[in-house]
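step=encode ok
step=design start
structure_in=
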């Protein structure tokens, strides 16, 4: 074979490759990243797109696989369906002209997290696309326990059933965060889910009436909370200072009433003393004798003298 013949074959091969590239009329398009939740349905969305040259394309084969798994999850091949339990077409009435080849996982588990591939062959061409699934699990409602111990006591908050690893936060009734004073532990259970526990020691003199425990997922979203109202400290601990002085609602009401009542009583004492002084002045004015043939007009004005103030003080504070 001479050089001319080799050149012709090379040109012919390039033309064939070009024609083959131009006849790629079918494409599978998938959402690259999906998120599912344990115990719920998860949808891996994929659809078949065709060019304008293709009319009424028909699907011949659909195969869904999870990478690392030797057996396919679902196979459709010329009217024959092979489905593993828990996997099926998302479209209940799917047929060969339905270009929606999405996969539905009916009871998502942690093992379903990973990378998938969807292969589709039609009467106009074939194509494969990849998609990945991240699986999360929501934490259960937290529970709070109280251990009175020997000092201010300890609060413990627990929550499980979540994935990935989350965290627990503590807040007082004033919305102040006390998480930095707590100790949290996260353990992975046999199912792969996490169990979270956190202890908050209550130091003498820093107890509030209630505390709130909040569970956050790995993304920082709040998934549950619980509030615990602390019991009153025993009298012996209150006497020894092993707890802060609590001011209850009754005390908050009584204190202002006592102050206001004291002011009212003081004002009444002032009025009584002033009234007595006026009466004494009036009696003195009425019995004053005439001197040197002129009437002496005493100063009978109402005023508070030093003796008045002393008398008021004695009545208020006692002798």
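sequence_out=
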């Amino acid at each position: 074979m001479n050089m001319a013949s080799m050149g012709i074959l090379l040109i012919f091969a390039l033309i064939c490759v070009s024609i083959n590239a131009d006849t790629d009329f079918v494409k599978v398009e998938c959402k690259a990243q999906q998120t599912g939740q344990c115990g719920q349905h998860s949808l891996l969305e994929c659809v078949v797109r065709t060019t304008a040259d293709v009319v009424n394309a028909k699907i011949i084969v659909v195969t869904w696989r999870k990478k690392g798994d030797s057996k396919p999850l679902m196979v459709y091949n010329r009217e024959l369906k092979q489905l593993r339990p828990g996997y099926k077409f998302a479209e209940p009435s799917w047929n060969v002209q339905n270009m929606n080849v999405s996969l539905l996982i009916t009871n998502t588990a942690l093992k379903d997290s990973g990378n998938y591939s969807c292969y589709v062959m039609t009467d106009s061409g074939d194509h494969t696309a990849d998609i990945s699934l991240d699986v999360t699990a929501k934490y259960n409602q937290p529970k709070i326990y109280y251990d009175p111990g020997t000092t201010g006591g300890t609060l413990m908050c627990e929550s499980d059933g979540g994935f990935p690893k989350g965290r627990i936060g503590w807040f007082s009734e004033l919305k102040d965060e006390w998480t930095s004073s707590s100790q949290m532990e996260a353990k992975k259970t046999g199912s792969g889910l996490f169990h979270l526990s956190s202890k908050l020691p209550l130091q003498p003199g820093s107890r509030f009436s209630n505390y709130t425990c909040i569970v956050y997922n790995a993304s920082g979203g709040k998934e549950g909370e619980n509030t615990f109202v602390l019991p009153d400290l025993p009298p012996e601990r209150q006497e020894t200072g092993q707890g802060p002085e609590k001011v209850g609602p009754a005390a908050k009401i009584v204190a202002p009433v006592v102050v206001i009542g004291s002011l009212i009583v003081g004002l009444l004492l002032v009025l009584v003393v002033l009234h007595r002084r006026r009466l004494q002045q009036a009696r003195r004015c009425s019995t004053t004798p005439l001197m040197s043939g002129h009437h002496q007009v005493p100063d009978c004005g109402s005023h508070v003298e030093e003796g008045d103030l002393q008398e008021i003080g004695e009545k208020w504070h006692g002798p």
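step=design ok
step=annotate ok -> Residues 3-22, 239-252, 290-306 have pLDDT under 50 and may be disordered.
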